[in-house]
What does this fold into?
Amino acid sequence: MHKTPTALPTIRNFAALAVFLLLFAGKCNRGYRKIAEEKERKAAEAVHTKKLLKSIRGIGYTEVKRTFDNGLSFSPVGFQLVPEWRITFTKDSVNIFSPKKNKFLNAPVVFDHDSIFNVAWAWLKLRYIKKDSIQFMVLHVNDRVIEDEKVHVYMTFYTNDYIKNTLHSDTNMLRRPSRRDTEYIKAKTLLANRIPDSAYAGTQPVVLKSRSPLVAVTKEVTPPDDVNGGKIYDDYLSPTFNVAIHHAYDDFGYSFTAFVDEKGNITFRKSINYISPEYKKTLTETMTAITNGYLKLYLDVTPARTLGIPHTSIIFLNVAGYKK
It folds into this structure.
């Protein structure tokens, strides 16, 4: 059949469109296949994980190690991960020991997918189950979406039988910080003692005691199960003290941070509250004078310690002066 010049471009356009549709359909099919394969993989992983958990029902486990991605139990700011869980899986729940209540509590186990489930209100991913141990990775989940950019935490458990009858050890021995932890803290201490801005929080925080009846010191303490979101470890990450000075030169109130070095020497660091540029010099000098005068004169200061090693750390102070 003879094709007119006008019909030829139309035929070519149709052919190109057909090729495009075929390629697009193929790409969509590959995409659908990939999604289906991923669903199958997750389903198979879920079945496998459920079988593994079923195999350890009724076995008592004790957490012996809790570390970050780098294998350390300490963070750069001085926060220490402390292993504390004791668990036993049942059919669809877990018995977990509460140190605060000194008894076992039963919590639901909600299985999700891909070896991920919620245990005692924490999202965990099963890393492995071996003959005498299991390991979980703690997940950061927000609106059921895993935030992978967060630093991961790993929890390692041994069976109670393995600890007692094979290792012939006890929980306290196994939970001791590792040699790497000790080396890390020693290195951080040397740096903090040389460069105050490298100070880090001590797991045994600074202790302030008054040596005068004119000065009262109280440390803010986070109550257990604080409804305002406070955590017990906040008490050593940001130790906060309220200092009341009577018969001061004037009535005043300042909030600031200070360095406490490894020998217990206290040094003004900076104001906690915003100060206008025109007042910064004067108020900084005043707070420095209060630190060097009242605080050094009337307070006994014990430095922070981590693993028994004294080091430079930062404290938060609310200092009030009263003329009477």
